Amino acid sequence: MDAYWLSPTGFLEAHLPHLPWADALRAYEAWWEERGKHVSLAVDRMGTPWLRMFDVQGRRVDEILYPPEYWDFLMEGYRRGLVWRVFEEDSLLPFYLFGYVVSFYDPGLYCPYTVSLSTAVPLAKYGDPDLKARYLEPMLRRDGAIWQGATWMTEVRGGSDLGAAVATEAHPYDGGWRLTGEKYFASNVGAEVAVVAARMPGGPPDVRGLALFLVPRYRADGSLNYHIRRLKDKIGTRSVPTGEVELQESEAYLLGRPKWGIYLILEVLNISRVANSVGSVALAQGALAAALRFAQERRAFGRPIIEHPLLRRQFQERMAQIREAWALAWEAVRLLDEVWKQRPRYSERYHLFRLVAHLAKYWTAEVAVQTAKWSMEVHGGMGVLAEYGVERYLREAMILPIWEGTPHRQMLDGLEAMERKQAHRLLWEHLAPHADPQDLEAMAAQVDAFLEQPPETREAEIEPLFQDLARFTARTLLRSSAVRSRQ
């Protein structure tokens, strides 16, 4: 079996001809092998970080405490360009390529980089020059003094129905804005700046009443601008602190036009959803690599278990599935890189991206979970022991279907894109050059027949169709990428 399965950069080179930033990616992988993966293991075994709410004089500080090595290995990714390269290269591609390497070793650590970029991009697009000078420039530093970002939308009533669940209120104050409310799942809590969904005064009680605000960690007078109530004890992704945030008359800056709020929020989520897809494939490769190393050394019935036909067949099937998942995730990356600078109102290309992103987020997360589970099975009893780290793949993978919108949310949003924007027809045009004509015609007929059903039936029965559409799209894109690699 190909050796590239044991290396994230090797996998990328095998599937992306003329891999950009190849030397930098190989160097980053070497750093992970030498140091990063050992720190990652220690952070995961340590569990939830500690929140120090007050200093010795009783002043509120809300300091997140990790071992010093954690901050070193977190800053390594920023120094190597997970955020600044996007703006230097005017492209999202380096973020997702470097993020693949990160997620092969630690998908939780990809979250701080993702929400930092998801803060920097709307600030760059919609912030005024003074705001960008104050808050964007520190986010693009290349040393340990870089500022981090965060994206806080979800409140205690959940995140799928933002129109009903967001109760945080914004009100004008002295030429600016103040926010009051609570965010229940605040990833990368403690960041220097965050983008936050809040409800505009006098707005409608649905998503049209929401706006996106920039909230710094400190007020103009240097005091804390938000408070951390507690940190979450999670099953995995312990490399990113997640907490509950209290906003109490917090200073904030409106991004974009108020009536664009929900669109800006979805732009932020799109960056994260595509990152979730890339991270899912990288985790699946990591779980497969661990299983492959074990199977090559473990002997049963007189030979390595990798030589037994049933297991060897399973490896081949998993590898094929990961290749398909990669093709789907990477197409979401490519399309987002085309449209990420668009503003409302969006082009048809943007709506094509939306459908592909929903398919990718839905399908790749499931591939990650099933591959992690299977890797544990390959290891047998060793797979359930924390000391060997195989069970961690499953703990980490279980969060990926939930992050940035559950499978239900991806299916329903994908259905909405087909119903309202005819995104499936854009997808047929996109896939036609490389799809089998009969298969494409059959898939199109299946979707058309489905969309002719009553709305309640469509929602109730969307999952089988969405699975078929994701698989069909992934396999067609894999064929397309194979053609491009031969050209």
Q: Quick summary of this structure?
A:
The protein is α+β, with helices and mostly antiparallel strands and 487 residues long.
Explain the overall architecture.
By secondary structure, this protein is an alpha+beta fold. It contains 17 helices and eleven strands. The strands form three sheets. Strands 3, 4, 5, 6, 7, 8 and 9 form a seven-stranded mixed β-sheet that branches. The protein has a two-stranded antiparallel sheet with strand order 1-2. Strand 1 (50-54) and strand 2 form a beta hairpin. Helix 11 crosses helix 17 (462-486). The two termini are 24 Å apart. 46% of the residues are buried. The model has no long low-confidence stretch (mean pLDDT 95).
Order of helices and strands: HHEEHHHHHEHEEEEEEHEEHHHHHHHH
How helix-rich are the residues, as a percent range?
Answer: 55-70%
> Unreliable stretches, pLDDT < 50, 5 or more residues?
none
- Give the N-terminus to C-terminus distance in angstroms: 24 Å
Architecture (CATH level 2) name of the largest domain: Up-down Bundle
Number of domains: 3
Number of helices: 17
